[in-house]
Structure prediction request, 574 residues.
Amino acid sequence: MYQAGWSKQEIAIVPRGHAMHGYGQWQQRARGVRTPLFARAVYLADEAGCPLYFCCLDLGYVTHAMRQGIVDAVRGEVGTAFDEASLVLTCTHTHSGPGGCAQESLYNMVTPGYVPAHVEAIVAAAAAALLAARAGAAASELVLVQGGFDPAVPVAWNRSLAAYNRNPDVTPRTPTDAHLALDRDMAVLGLRREGRLCALLSFFGVHATCLGSALRLHDGDNKGYAAAHAEGVLEAAGVKGAVAIFAQGTAGDVSPHYHGPGDIARRASIRGEAEVDYARRNGRYQSELALALLASAGEPVQGAIDSIFSYADFTAIHAAPAFAEGEQEAWTSEPCHGVGFFAGTRIDGPGMPAPVAAGARFLAKRLRQRRLRQLARYPAQEQAYFRRIYAAQGAKDILMEAGPKTVLGMALDKLALPDFADPVVAEMKRQARGGALRQSPLVPTVLPLQVVTLGALAIVCCPGEFTTTAGRRLRESVAATLAVRGVTQALLCTYCNDYMGYVTTREEYQEQAYEGGHTIYGQWTLAAFQTRFAALALEMCKPASARGHDRLTRPAPVPAAELALRSDLPVPRR
Prediction:
């Protein structure tokens, strides 16, 4: 039995024409609201008073600016005893939520720029929900139930099947079986008070991209509709203030849209209001499964709550050979985006046209060859950098290097592409020329890692988007390490605490599809996560007073003067 409470608070953002986050499309600008966006929170405390604060946001991403603001706000009310390791901050990954919420610059280019008012509204809503959940805590039973979608339920498909089939530890699937090339199981934590189900927390990985980039309204997409449906069912049964959280699992290569023969035509037939109906139906599938599973008694979750949290610089992590196929020199590098990232995904979010992508791949290969062939002509520091990124990035045709801030080797303000050719490129060049990007990072590089345990259950909390197999491997490696302290099961929660892109397996990475192109620290990124999470899990096996994990590393502050230059920028007219 835990002390538990739950609450939700609307995120009070007024759409004013800023681009939404997710598709990276200049034209996808928020002009109104179809469904409210919420911060949904659950609070738990064990018999010793050790807490867990869990908050899920109807947003496309979590950023360091959000998390730090929420930590400060909650600590201001709870006091200095509040430990940020006890806060899990995640999101639904709707692509119809506000952009402009990161102080790092790249994913804000389309917004354009950083929008402080968005972050302030998110912080206010999340803190209010968390504090209300804590204030409403009372004796409650926590149960875990698990079950899978029937194969006939059209809820999810693997969108990167060729990459998935490269993994030696999966059953290869044909294009007609893409719906089986993913984890179709859902894990649900249910909170019952006086025998009545009052709140739930679901983990199931599927992109919240039922709604496409042509729409102009804030919307919770499938996860938001799932939450609204489940809350409606519980409230109709007499529960006041029901809260249903539908968080993400291994969604990196999982689409809510059909993938298989005729998929492009089928996606093209779903437009406008049909997309809304499609999102609502997908959400209902998730809600109905969660509620059906919770109709059973479930497995009681009991025991102490524990949490551990640490940041790690992912630009130079040496992956342990045990996670790197025995490779002794498996390293990550400074972040690089491949052509596959800019080419997008066929169904969920197409990017640059195929001929342009082909040309970019040719130029990226030629640049790599020239650099390595003429290595001795470069200064020693650049020689080391080139060796490092090309060893780490492997098969990737690198288009953008986030460290030196270049595209195909050209500084951002010197890009040969004319401004009229692409508004995002024009904005990038404008910010670079104005001095807004000199010291500012394009993407996060110091990333948050977190593990939470509730008795014998562990929740592995990861930033970014993990593919099906990458997530399973990470979950299994953490569970194996924590077994000595009595953990019998581990769940994976993604999109936690910050956002930096994707994590594929090394085998999937070689395909260099969108997901591999967006695995920015290179082919050993998953191995690096496994290495660092295993080390964190080992520390968790020690008494809290004996743990020696890094508590000091933090992302460097973004230069305030540069941030000001790209904050509250004028948005394009209709």
Residues 188 and 202 are 4 Å apart (CA to CA).
